[in-house]
Specification:
This protein has helices at residues 3-19, 29-36, 42-56, 65-73, 82-94. It is mainly α. Helix 1 (3-19) packs across helix 3 (42-56), helix 1 packs across helix 5 (82-94) and helix 3 runs antiparallel to helix 4. The mean pLDDT is 77. This is DUF3349 domain-containing protein.
């Protein structure tokens, strides 16, 4: 991974922590991972998933990397409701995540 992309992944984790200061609730992972897929590679998503799993340890509802991998590898990411997407988008925007796709050249 290039240094620029690695920096972007680090910033993405920081945005997630800002948008979800108490950790990501389990119900938001489906929409969150689906939204992240719009901007990140699979390897980058897996790196962020590891960070989120590490961050969730010690919380009332921790998630494991295996849980996240199962979500990534299943079609469940395609099943986020519009309400889920709006809720998660609001959290990402609160953390400064660039939700808008860049204009096409």
């Amino acid at each position: 991974m290039s240094e620029q992309r690695s920096s972007f992944v680090t910033r993405a984790v920081e945005w997630l922590r800002a948008g979800y200061p108490d950790g990501v609730p389990r119900r938001d992972y489906v929409a969150l991972l689906g939204l992240l897929r719009r901007k990140l590679t699979e390897d980058e998503i897996r790196k962020i998933a590891q960070e989120l799993a590490d961050q969730s340890q010690g919380t009332p509802d921790p998630i494991t990397t295996q849980d996240i991998e199962a979500m990534i590898n299943s079609t469940v990411l395609q099943q986020a409701t519009p309400e889920d997407v709006v809720r998660v988008s609001a959290h990402l925007a609160a953390g400064g995540w660039p939700l808008a796709d860049p204009p096409a050249d």
